[in-house]
Amino acid sequence: QVQLVESGGGLVQAGGSLRLSCAASGRTFSSYNMGWFRRAPGKEREFVAAIRWSGGNTYYADSVKGRFTISRDNAKNTVYLQMNSLKPEDTAVYYCAAGGRTITTMTTSPYWGQGTQVTVSS
Question: For residues 100 and 31, what is the distance between their CA atoms, to the nearest angstrom?
């Protein structure tokens, strides 16, 4: 069993930056592919970014490529999402996910956090 707790959300102006963190419990964190998803008001949940268990491969949604960076620190059981050049359309609740079969199929993740709100003002 893995528990995920996100933090780092908040209110930021367009063009600004935020770094989200996702702290995981359990000794098997380093064996899990990890990812971030988001859900904007009135919209379906969408994939944002993922990182392989080893940290050697990453995968991004086209909408965030070049602006967001996912990373992980297996010694701290934590995955990060650095978000730069934020846009109002990035406003959403951001969720951390763990355990997807591959970094391109993170919707298969069995473990999900509760989410953290990111609001980007124009």
Answer: 11
Say how far apart CA 22 and CA 77 lie, in whole Å: 8
Tens of pLDDT, residue by residue over 75-101, are 999 999 999 999 999 999 999 999 999
Q: Read out DSSP for 59-82?
A: EE-TTTTTTEEEEEETTTTEEEEE
Closest of 81, 86, 73, 85 to residue 29, by C-alpha: 73
CA-CA distance, 89 to 16, in Å (whole number)?
Answer: 13
* 23 CB burial (10 A radius; 0-12, 13-18, 19+): middle
120: number of Cβ within 10 Å:
20
